[in-house]
Amino acid sequence: MLISIYKTRQYYHHKDFHKSPHSHTKSGVARGGKKIIAREIKVVRKVLDVNDTIAQQNRKLFSEKGVFVLNVMSSPGSGKTAILEKTLSHVMPAIKCAVIVGDICTSNDADRLAVSGAPVVQVNTDAFGGDCHLAAHVIKTAAGNFDLDDIDLLIVENLGNLVCPAEFDIGEDFRVVILSVTEGEDKPVKYPLMFRVCDAALLNKIDLLPHLDYDRKETVNNILQVHPGMLVFEISAKTEEGFDPWIDWLKSRVSRKISP
Ligand SMILES: Nc1nc2c(ncn2[C@@H]2O[C@H](COP(=O)(O)OP(=O)(O)OP(=O)(O)O)[C@@H](O)[C@H]2O)c(=O)[nH]1
Ligand SMILES: [Mg+2]
Fold this sequence. Notes:
The chain is of the alpha/beta class. The chain has a single domain (2-258), classed as P-loop containing nucleotide triphosphate hydrolases (Rossmann fold). Helices cover 40% and strands 18% of the residues. It has helices at residues 14-17, 28-31, 34-64, 80-91, 108-114, 136-143, 187-190, 192-197, 216-226, 243-258; strands at residues 2-7, 68-74, 97-103, 120-124, 153-157, 174-180, 200-204, 231-234. An eight-stranded parallel beta sheet has the order 1-4-3-5-2-6-7-8, sandwiched between helices. β3 (97-103), α5 (108-114) and β4 (120-124) form a beta-alpha-beta unit. α3 packs parallel to α6 (136-143). It binds guanosine-5'-triphosphate and magnesium ion. Magnesium ion binds at residues 80-81, 109, 157. Guanosine-5'-triphosphate is lined by residues 74, 76-82, 109, 160, 204-205, 207-208, 236-238.
């Protein structure tokens, strides 16, 4: 059931966040003196501080309501929605689920995920600059559409990229990064923050391995280089190969939270 399409407001805006330190445009040094850099860093710190405060409020609310929150991140097209479609079919109805899905435009993913019967809220960020992540205040508003007393597992499908979503705490319990075998072995070392902040990595599309020159061992080594001991599940959303360990792990984490 797709219950709402929510357009984000210009609140903690993309343009503010994307000044130094990770500007998409010019570097702080090229743009001028130390004063500008200092001011921009202050703006970024303020945005992140406010986000952290709201994330803590979210975490407290989700804890009081006994809702386990899973934040799913990856680059575009690595299979977030495909994995979640299959995951929902494995865990529902025993586990009561709801989904918040973020995209710049369209409700395509919400439409796909709503087939499961779970309530789904689509967040579109295009109206005010196309934010590349879901911030804590967006999750707070979107979660207001659900009866949290009747939900065990809230899944958040974040916007597709390996950079910005890693920087925003949303009040989740666990973070999962998906990496598909068509993206290359080096992504964990190129985008280390994402792999550092996540609790588990799903290596997806392993059904394609026979058709690729791809070294899965090298990928896993790269993941472990940036995040020693990280949990890695090798799966295929298409064939469901490798799904059992992933589903068992998820169920055990959810049940630990809802019946501690
Ligand atoms: N062969 C194969 N294809 C897959 C697998 N998982 C996903 N796909 C395909 O990959 C494409 C992208 O999948 P999505 O689930 O839409 O990816 P996404 O990460 O949700 O994409 P965005 O939300 O746009 O970032 C689709 O054509 C899927 O059918 C898989 O395990 N194996
Ligand atoms: Mg998707």
